[in-house]
Design brief:
Blueprint: E1 2-8, H1 13-23, E2 28-35, H2 41-49, E3 53-55, H3 58-63, H4 65-74, E4 79-82, H5 91-96, E5 101-105, H6 119-128, E6 133-140, E7 150-157, H7 164-191, H8 194-201, H9 218-226, H10 250-253, H11 273-306, H12 310-343
Parallel strand pairs: 1-2, 1-4, 2-3, 4-5
Antiparallel strand pairs: 5-6, 6-7
Bound molecules: glycinamide ribonucleotide.
Length: about 350
């Protein structure tokens, strides 16, 4: 049995959906819901489901996060799940639960993320910008808002006559579908017993089992474990790669995504800012320095000419010409290399 704790600040529809989803099986339990708002709607919802709720004021989250770690440890929590939790999660908690704190965000991160971007603010910004597509992201929580590794995403179309409210409803539906699956995937990442995993990955070894005829997706396996009905809505997930269990769910997210299905993860890392710095520096070196030499020689032409040093003026003019050509050629080369390299992301 895996225990999860949900942190929520608001209405708690996601928390309720998660509790109902896992409540149908017997392998994952919502052991605790913690809220930082005394009157949060999530409290009533959890009471109806018989799930323990704790109210922890913001002061404790800020000044004494160790108490929250104790609460979570006391309940033997395996995974901490943020569902509309509108407060900073202290590094003390993140360190106590490394790679075990996940969050859902109502946009396709990194778009429309960061401080101040939460709940309806996100939908207002998306509609105001005239976006044609938004979505949902489940990611690991780090000390930086909405910045951790992305676990799963799902696209949601933005319709021409959408208001922030109508978009929010559609996003919520996608959240209800995506979050339980992402939680299952996160639990699987942290939860697989090393011996079991080795056996499954090496079916010929002692303790190994026969490989399944058709590789099952993470969601399918968990649906079976949890004894809940699972209907695939998007890409399937291949079995874990031996020696690389952490990447097990990633390849599936590289499949071309149909609208409404988990989206394709970016294939490459974003270009590091240092590349841009080097590109600018090399452009300066290539164009600017020979350009300066050309200017110096040009000014020598007139000064020598005024001193009736016609031979010196001719030589300076020649050098000015050469440096202008060098500057032009290097400029063309650096631009023609830099632009395509930038386009392909280096
Ligand atoms: C959800 O839409 C969730 O994505 C968002 O708050 C809402 C909570 O709804 N979270 C964030 O914006 C986090 N940055 P709920 O209380 O009905 O589950």
């Amino acid at each position: 049995m895996k225990n999860i704790a949900i942190l929520a600040s608001g209405s708690g529809t996601n928390a309720e959906n998660i509790a109902r989803f896992f409540g149908e099986g017997n392998k994952v339990k919502v052991a605790l819901v913690i809220t930082n708002r005394r009157n949060a709607g999530v409290i009533d919802r959890m009471e109806k489901l018989g799930i323990d709720t704790e109210y922890v004021p913001n002061r404790v989250w800020d000044e004494c996060p160790e108490r929250i770690v104790e609460m979570l440890r006391f309940r033997q929590i395996d995974l901490v799940v943020l569902a509309g939790f509108m407060h900073y999660v202290s590094p003390v908690i993140l360190k106590a639960f490394p790679d075990r704190v996940i969050n859902i965000h109502p946009s396709l991160l990194p778009a429309y993320g960061g401080k101040g971007m939460w709940g309806h603010h996100v939908h207002q910004a998306v509609v105001a910008a005239g976006e044609k597509e938004s979505g949902v992201t489940v990611h690991y929580v780090t000390e930086i808002f909405d910045d951790g590794e992305i676990l799963m995403q799902q696209r949601v179309p933005v319709l021409p006559d959408d208001t922030p409210e109508s978009l929010e409803q559609r996003i919520h539906k996608a959240e209800y579908e995506l979050y339980p699956r992402a939680i299952a995937a996160a639990l699987r990442r942290i939860g697989s017993d090393p011996e079991e995993r080795t056996a499954a990955e090496n079916p010929g070894t002692p303790g190994g089992s026969n490989p399944p005829a058709v590789p099952k997706s993470v969601e399918q396996e968990w649906a079976e474990v949890l004894k809940v009905k699972y209907e695939p809505s998007g890409a399937s997930v291949p079995p874990p790669v031996p020696g690389k269990p952490d990447e097990a769910i990633r390849p599936a997210l590289h499949q071309p995504a149909a609208p409404g299905s988990p989206v394709q993860m970016p294939e490459r890392e974003p270009m590091p800012p240092t590349y841009m710095l080097w590109a600018v520096l090399s452009a300066i070196l290539c164009c600017f320095l020979p350009g300066i030499a050309a200017v110096i020689f040009s000014s020598m032409v007139s000064s020598r000419y005024n001193r009736n040093d016609f031979e010196g003026a001719r030589r300076a003019s020649k050098w000015a010409e050469i440096w202008i050509i060098i500057s032009f050629v290097l400029g063309v080369i650096s631009a023609s290399l830099y632009i395509p390299l930038t386009l392909v992301g280096l």
